[in-house]
């Protein structure tokens, strides 16, 4: 498994480059990961999606798909793509410290 220095910690990554352990995640890690994804600043709307994804993962054991995100997070499809361009579910999951959602390429 690969490791990477993120927010001053050495963190293990899975094969997709997402955090291998949920316990390694915190807001500082999320902010650094977002910059790697081309998102310079996380707004309240970004955090709404990130927190929703983490809640869903904790309750159901899987990161929500884009369809579920747009139906239940309070953020519509157009805004989701503006917040997390070019693959919102995959990018949001990575920033949220979660594995890639099933169904994402």
Account of the protein in words:
This protein has 105 residues and is mostly helical. It has one domain. Helices cover 47% and strands 10% of the residues. The chain is built from 5 helices and 2 strands. The chain has a two-stranded antiparallel ribbon with strand order 1-2. The model has no long low-confidence stretch (mean pLDDT 92).
In short:
The chain has five helices and two strands. The chain is mostly helical and 105 residues long. The chain has one domain.
Annotate the secondary structure layout.
Layout: E1 2-6, E2 9-13, H1 27-36, H2 44-60, H3 66-72, H4 77-83, H5 88-95
List keywords for this structure.
mainly alpha, 10% strand, 2 strands, two-stranded antiparallel ribbon, 105 residues
For the record, the count of structural domains works out to: 1
Termini Cα gap? 20 Å
Q: Which series of helices and strands comes N to C?
A: EEHHHHH
Adjacency order of strands in the biggest sheet:
1-2
Query: Helix count, per DSSP?
Result: 5
Radius of gyration (Å): 13 Å
Shape: globular
Structural class: mainly alpha
Number of strand elements? 2
């Amino acid at each position: 498994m690969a490791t990477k220095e993120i927010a001053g910690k050495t963190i293990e990554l899975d094969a997709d480059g997402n955090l291998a352990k949920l316990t390694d995640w915190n807001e500082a890690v999320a902010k650094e990961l977002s910059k790697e994804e081309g998102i310079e600043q996380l707004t309240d709307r970004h955090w709404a999606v990130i927190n929703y994804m983490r809640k869903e993962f904790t309750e159901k054991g899987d990161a929500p798909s884009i369809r579920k995100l747009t139906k239940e997070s309070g953020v519509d499809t157009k805004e989701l793509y503006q917040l997390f361009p070019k693959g919102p579910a995959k990018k949001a999951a990575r920033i949220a410290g979660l594995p890639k959602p099933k169904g994402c390429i």
